[in-house]
């Protein structure tokens, strides 16, 4: 029995039917909006493929299933492109490793998450591996930007499109998670369920949850900019930028008629009175540029973000 989010389960059953009827492609590309659960679906599919029992879903009891539960299966390889670019040397090493026979079960599986992070040389190496797959080897790629992949890679994969859940679906699912109520208060930041869950797992719920109130008091002149940024460090500058950018984006959308989260009502009124829509858009663009520049240079993050907020 899987605890997979309910909007992912039809996709899983579709793949399980193909597996059971021996019609499953050796390469799958799982796509969908960022944060809807491609990686979680992919890991469930991997469990099914690694199981030694000839059935659609993983039995959970065989030696391979036990190794998967312990995250020690020698025939399962992972490349994660979330943190950094996937390079050709990583692909070549992977191909050498999977060219050997399975050590435990019947299949070998390569899971490549955030596959859009491949550089062109890595993509060409993956393409070659997909065209000449080793026996009993499956490739599972996930991507929220599948159009950035080589068309030849996409054409060699079975596409599995993950649907974007509705807001009521996300709310219902969050209530089953730790701090679900607190996460629901962050819908002004994102409605992507697994991004919200990642924020909870990283212990950043309070950082984001406090931003609207802190910004409101700053705009009302009750506290200085330094008070809003008192928790800012080099390792969370991106979180602050994401939070402020999300607030400005929601305000800009609201000025065009979109609904506005209750947490941002006072901020919207204050920003429109202070800046107006044109300046608001300029400040949003400036924040996006700051995020980009901070990744490329050694700018002082506290000075840069203080300078930005002083203009609000």
Any overview of this molecule?
The chain is an alpha/beta fold. The chain folds into 2 domains: 156 residues, P-loop containing nucleotide triphosphate hydrolases (Rossmann fold); 109 residues, Zinc Finger, Delta Prime, domain 3 (Up-down Bundle), CATH 1.20.272. The chain contains 15 helices and 5 strands. It has a 5-stranded parallel sheet with strand order 2-3-4-1-5, with helices on both faces. α1 packs parallel to α2, α4 runs parallel beside α5 and α10 crosses α12. It starts with 8 loop residues before the first helix and ends with a helix. The model has no long low-confidence stretch (mean pLDDT 92).
Observed structural traits:
312 residues, alpha/beta, Rossmann fold, Zinc Finger, Delta Prime, domain 3, 5-stranded parallel beta sheet, 15 helices, 9% strand
Total domain units:
2
- The average pLDDT is 92
Principal-axes shape call: elongated
Q: Which stretches are poorly predicted, pLDDT < 50 over at least 5 residues?
A: none
Strand numbers in spatial order across the main sheet = 2-3-4-1-5
- Secondary-structure-based class equals alpha/beta
CATH superfamily of the largest domain: P-loop containing nucleotide triphosphate hydrolases
Secondary-structure topology with pairs:
Elements: H1 9-20, E1 27-31, H2 38-50, H3 63-69, E2 76-80, H4 88-98, E3 108-113, H5 120-131, E4 137-143, H6 151-155, E5 158-161, H7 167-174, H8 180-184, H9 193-201, H10 205-219, H11 225-228, H12 237-255, H13 265-274, H14 276-296, H15 301-309
Helix pairs in contact: 1-2, 4-5, 10-12, 10-13, 12-14, 14-15
């Amino acid at each position: 029995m899987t605890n997979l989010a309910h909007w992912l389960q039809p996709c899983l059953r579709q793949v399980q039917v193909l597996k059971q009827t021996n019609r499953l492609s050796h390469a799958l590309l799982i796509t969908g909006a960022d944060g809807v659960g491609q990686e979680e679906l992919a890991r469930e599919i991997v469990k099914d493929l690694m199981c030694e029992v000839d059935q659609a879903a993983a039995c959970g009891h065989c030696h391979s299933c036990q190794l998967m539960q312990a995250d020690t299966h020698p025939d399962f390889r992972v490349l994660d492109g979330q943190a950094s670019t996937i390079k050709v040397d990583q692909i070549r090493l992977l191909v050498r490793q999977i060219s050997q026979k399975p050590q435990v079960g019947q299949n070998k599986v390569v899971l490549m998450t955030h596959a859009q992070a491949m550089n062109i040389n890595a993509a060409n190496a993956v393409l070659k591996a997909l065209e000449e797959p080793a026996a009993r080897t499956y490739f599972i790629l996930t991507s929220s930007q599948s159009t950035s992949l080589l068309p030849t890679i996409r054409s060699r994969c079975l596409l599995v499109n993950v649907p974007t859940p509705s807001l009521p679906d996300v709310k219902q699912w969050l209530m089953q998670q730790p701090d679900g109520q607190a996460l629901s208060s962050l819908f002004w930041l994102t409605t992507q369920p697994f991004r919200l869950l990642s924020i909870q797992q990283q212990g950043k719920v309070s950082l984001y949850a406090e931003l609207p109130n802190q910004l409101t008091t700053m705009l009302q002149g009750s506290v200085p900019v330094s008070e809003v940024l008192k928790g800012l460090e080099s390792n969370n500058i991106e979180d602050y930028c994401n939070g402020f950018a999300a607030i400005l984006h929601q305000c800009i959308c609201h000025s065009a008629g979109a609904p506005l989260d209750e947490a941002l009502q006072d901020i919207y009124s204050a920003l429109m009175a202070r800046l107006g829509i044109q300046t608001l858009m300029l400040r949003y663009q400036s924040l996006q540029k700051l995020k980009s520049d901070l990744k490329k240079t050694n700018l002082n993050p506290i000075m840069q973000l203080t300078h930005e907020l002083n203009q609000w």
